[in-house]
Write a structure and sequence with these properties.
The chain is built from three helices and seven strands. The protein is α+β, with helices and mostly antiparallel strands. Strand 5 (about 85-90) and strand 6 (about 95-105) form a beta hairpin. The longest helix is centred in the C-terminal third of the chain and has 24 residues, at about 120-144.
Length: about 140
């Protein structure tokens, strides 16, 4: 896909019925991560996942979309266990940043996502993609 170079910001939130520690574990454990991170109909091979949970650590995976491999790579620039993480470039574009925050609420966890510097070509499908990711995360958490 040829990108225009234009970027924008995307935000979305979801509250899930699991404690912060359990949700955090799902994000930081490759075997769980591959079960929900990609939207439905997209595969992430476990061998492509690298999660180095610390500032300066890598956050990488390859998404197989319609048979085409799309490698996503970023670096954790902020990392506070059970609270939030931010990863940045190279990811999708120069200046890209994604922060995910996890807040305890009424026995569950509110997940807030903000992505800035996201290519405008991805903005249209971002809500649908993250809704699918959150739905799959809830299914994973419900299984225990």
């Amino acid at each position: 896909m040829e990108l225009s170079g234009e970027t924008g910001t995307f935000t979305i939130s979801r509250t899930v019925a699991a404690p912060v520690e359990r949700v955090w574990e799902a994000y930081m454990t490759p075997e769980q991560f591959v079960q929900f991170w990609a939207p439905a109909m997209v595969e992430i091979p476990i061998e492509s996942v690298v999660i180095e949970p610390r500032v300066g650590g890598r956050f990488e995976c390859t998404m197989i979309v319609n048979g085409e491999a799309n490698h996503n790579a970023g670096t954790f620039v902020e990392f506070v266990e059970n609270s939030h993480f931010r990863f940045g470039e190279p990811a999708f574009s120069e200046g890209f940043s994604s922060i995910m925050s996890f807040t305890p609420v009424d026995g569950g966890t509110r997940i807030d996502v903000e992505q800035s510097g996201l290519p405008v070509e991805f903005l249209g499908g971002a809500n649908e993609g993250f809704t699918s990711v959150f739905d799959q995360l809830e299914e994973l958490l419900a299984r225990g």
